[in-house]
Design goal:
The protein has 287 residues and is an alpha/beta fold. Helices cover 31% and strands 23% of the residues.
Length: 287
């Protein structure tokens, strides 16, 4: 079995997230099998793999956003030492204290019938006067690069551009002071330069707030630049867990395939790029 946890300077301290032998099934479909994962305070972990490899199922199981059709079992599923009960889907998903999630589509996490301000205030109000919470909300909007926070407080999500909505979603996710931020394909809908800006913002804000980050992505290059550790999934299993700085020395053929499939100036001299099917010897299999 490949190792599915990695060494980290803070190993020995309690992990923020600790998962052992996690299975996610949808009826006969085994979406995730036997996943082990530890995320340490402040660590940035990326889950990478092709479409259908089980990344989102794993992230949703941790966050408690699993669909009703999912059956989740685990020997351990703990956030800061507290067991998370994911035995049944909630009719209306509720926030797990200490955990925030952001999505590719900001409309999935923003409520369309509440103004931006009321959604931010809902997170910021506990323990604060209304005035303090309002000031904190403006501060958060400013932090995520919104230049006219007073106006944005009063608008509804659909009145904002996609990029602005994403910034608002980030402000709400981090204003709740999570110890773990899960970001599911946060940049897939953005063009390359905006994707880098968005990832920089996620990483720098999370670092400032002392939140560990779990990014779910197809993009191995994004992992290389923004993650400490890369968790590689293939057909529902974690096949390799590797320091991002070691990606070029990956052991598993699938990880090597993912790295080799990224077009670079050097690879452009190849007659053709390898495909994952050719790397895994599954070329010609039925899709
Ligand atoms: N609600 C669902 N009901 C039934 N099967 C599902 C459901 N959600 C996912 N699956 C199946 O579970 C497997 C893993 O899907 P999952 O979405 O977790 O993978 P992924 O790696 O995140 O893919 P993508 O990158 O395309 O989102 C796939 O075979 C998928 O078809």
């Amino acid at each position: 079995m490949p190792s599915t946890t990695t060494s980290h300077p803070e190993q020995g301290t309690q992990p923020v997230l600790s998962v052992r032998n996690l299975d996610v099934r949808y009826g006969d479909v085994a979406a995730v099998t036997g996943a082990d994962l530890d995320i340490h305070p402040g660590q940035r972990v990326a889950i990478v793999g092709e479409s259908g490899s089980g990344k989102t199922s794993l992230g949703n199981a941790v966050a408690g956003f699993q669909p009703a059709a999912a059956t989740i079992t685990a020997d351990r599923l703990e956030l800061q030492g507290t067991a998370l009960d994911r035995s049944s889907a909630q009719p209306i998903p509720t926030r797990t204290p200490g955990l925030s999630m952001i999505f590719q589509d900001a409309m999935r996490s923003l409520d369309p019938v509440w103004t931006v301000g009321s959604q931010l205030l809902a997170v910021l109000k506990p323990g604060r006067s209304r005035k303090e919470a309002h000031r904190a909300a403006l501060g958060w909007l400013d932090e995520v690069g919104i230049t006219d926070p007073e106006r944005v407080m009063d608008v509804y999500p659909h009145q904002l551009s996609g990029g602005m909505r994403q910034r608002v979603m980030m402000a709400i996710a981090l204003a709740s002071k999570p110890s773990l931020l899960i970001a599911d394909e946060p940049t897939s809908a953005l063009d390359a330069s905006l994707a880098v800006t968005a990832m920089r913002l996620i990483v720098s804000m999370a670092e400032r707030e002392d939140a560990a980050v779990l990014v779910i992505t197809h993009d191995i290059e994004l992992c290389r630049h923004f993650a400490d550790v890369v968790v590689v999934m293939y057909h529902g299993e974690i096949v390799e867990t590797i320091a991002a700085s070691d990606l070029d020395r990956a052991q598993h053929p699938y990880t090597r395939g993912l790295v080799a499939c990224v077009p670079t100036l050097a690879s452009a001299k190849l007659e053709e790029l390898p495909t994952l099917a050719s790397v895994m010897g599954t070329e010609g299999d039925a899709a």
